[in-house]
Design a protein that fits this description.
alpha/beta; 16 helices; binds adenosine-5'-diphosphate; binds alpha-D-glucopyranose
């Protein structure tokens, strides 16, 4: 099958979070399974662009309203990522270092989508499926079906994967002029609650829809930032496909970022060595349990609770536990977390920023990984942690329910809690600390067990294939 993935992120080309990891891995494993998977994304000005070789594949001209622009499609020459990678450039719109966060993001998303469809219209053949990731490319299913100019493409099947339904790309109707001329009778298929809503439009118009875990799919019918009724109505075409992890990148036995490699047979000894190196770098005590947080410092991840939770743990258990935080996001949370490094020197530290190499060292060197997320469609951190023998401490939500079992269950390997609250986090921390000091045997059993769990992409590749085949 020929599968085109459309996304704004793809690791290692450009990544802001888990979306990048998934789009960097799924096509590779689809290719390994014998399919022809391609990724098409914007030509963000990241390091990858300058360090790889490219050929110009196509040059075209398209428009957003009255503004006509030239676009260029380039292709990575050496198939470095294990699949064909195409980047679309539009001068003045997509030529930026950052992926998101600009005042003209709506134009950027539309410019990318319009250029892609315009380019596709010049192909001599049609792909088997166009697989759209998140709302940034959510208008494509509608445009393929109802824009007069592209009516030839209307029978190409589309799949939408929702990595996060919190963000929907709302835009007022006054901006509808940016879309290529469409059948206005179908305008309702762009709309939700009075606005143009690219995510809702994708749910309505894609042939099949999935999210990245089963529990999150269920949750969306009760809690999806206003789209609850839509998910209830469209449930017949919706399903859950759990993400996998790319073991070429995330495997403690081969990971080049970590100090000492290990597997399930050497985890106890070698995790300690990684922990010692990490603790030395951040002035922590390697004899005490090390709990880490890695992620975006936003409300969705309940990062606002971290300062209070860590301070409470420090006051009630100081001398018994270490914390290390890596993240960036809300400036106030960043400031709080940084301030606290002075107060709790020697037991707590924080690295504010984005640091891929350090994240690997932390998965390898930590004993526990905290994820109190309020919303977690799948979550990759807990799966990486498990692969590295690091006990996940997670709130019971979305993908965290589907991937982590509490240590109180038969053969369980994690610590789960119900509420995103300082109290619940504190209780989880006291369970973790108790486990570390008083039940080394259970901890060793849990580590070994979680490292052997198969969260590889192969299973999910087959599930996506079944979705594609159902469109024929
Ligand atoms: P989300 O996509 O919602 O942020 P995921 O758990 O799916 O959450 O994926 C997060 C990904 O981003 C993981 O690969 C994680 O290691 C990485 N990550 C998040 N914040 C940072 C950071 N500050 N530095 C390095 N990696 C980070
Ligand atoms: C989103 C979600 C995260 C998920 C990732 C990859 O960023 O917040 O839970 O793991 O996408 O699907």
């Amino acid at each position: 099958m020929e599968i085109i993935h459309l996304s704004f992120e793809c690791y290692p080309v450009a990544k802001a979070g888990g979306l990048g990891d998934v789009v960097g891995a799924l096509p590779k494993y689809q290719t390994k399974a014998g399919h022809y998977a391609k990724v098409v994304m914007p030509m963000h000005r990241t390091k990858f662009l300058n360090t790889h070789e490219w050929d110009v594949d196509f040059k075209g001209r398209a428009n957003i309203g009255n503004w006509w622009f030239d676009y260029t499609v380039i292709k990575e020459r050496n198939n470095t990522l294990g699949f064909d990678l195409f980047l679309i450039d539009i001068n003045g719109l997509l030529d930026r270092e950052q992926i998101y966060g600009f005042a003209d993001d709506t134009q950027r998303y539309i410019g990318f989508q319009v250029s892609f469809i315009n380019w596709l219209d010049h192909w001599e053949h049609k792909p088997d499926v166009i697989h759209c990731h998140d709302y940034h490319v959510g208008l494509v299913p509608f445009m393929l079906k109802y824009c007069y100019q592209y009516s030839r493409l209307g029978d190409i099947p589309t799949v939408l994967t929702i990595h996060n339904a919190q963000y929907q790309g709302w835009m007022g109707w006054d901006q509808s002029f940016m879309l290529p001329t469409y059948d206005t009778w179908k305008g309702g298929l762009l709309e939700w609650s009075g606005d143009i809503n690219p995510l809702a439009s994708a749910v309505k118009n894609a042939w099949k829809v999935n999210t990245v875990s089963w529990s999150y799919m269920e949750e969306l019918r009760y809690n999806s930032n206003g789209l609850e009724a839509l998910f209830e109505y469209e449930r017949g075409k919706c399903s859950g496909v759990l993400n996998g992890i790319d073991t070429d990148v995330w495997d403690p036995a081969t990971d080049k970022f970590i100090d000492v490699n290990y597997d399930a047979t050497t985890v106890d000894k070698n995790k300690q060595k990684n922990k010692e190196a990490l603790c030395k770098e951040f002035n922590l005590d390697p004899q005490k349990p090390l709990i880490v947080f890695i992620g975006r410092l936003v409300g969705e991840k309940a990062a606002d609770l971290l300062p209070d939770a860590i301070a409470s743990a420090m006051y009630s258990m100081q001398g018994y536990v270490n914390f290390l935080v890596l993240g960036s996001g809300d400036p106030h949370i960043e400031w709080q977390l940084k301030q606290m490094t002075q107060t709790f020197k020697g037991s707590y530290n924080a690295m504010i920023g984005y640091n891929e190499a350090l994240s690997h060292k932390m998965y390898a060197g930590a004993d526990f990984l905290l994820m109190p997320s309020r919303v977690e469609p799948c979550g990759l951190n807990q799966m990486y942690a498990m692969k590295y023998g690091t006990v996940p401490m997670v709130r019971s939500t979305g993908g965290l329910i589907d991937t982590v079992t509490d240590m109180g269950e038969w053969q369980g390997w994690g610590i789960r809690f119900m509420q995103a609250s300082v109290g619940d986090i504190m209780h989880a921390i006291s369970r973790a600390v108790g486990l570390y000091y008083d039940d080394k045997k259970t901890l060793a059993r849990m580590r070994k067990h979680m490292m052997e769990i198969d969260n590889s992409w192969e299973k999910s590749v087959q599930q996506y294939l079944n979705i594609y085949l159902s469109l024929k």
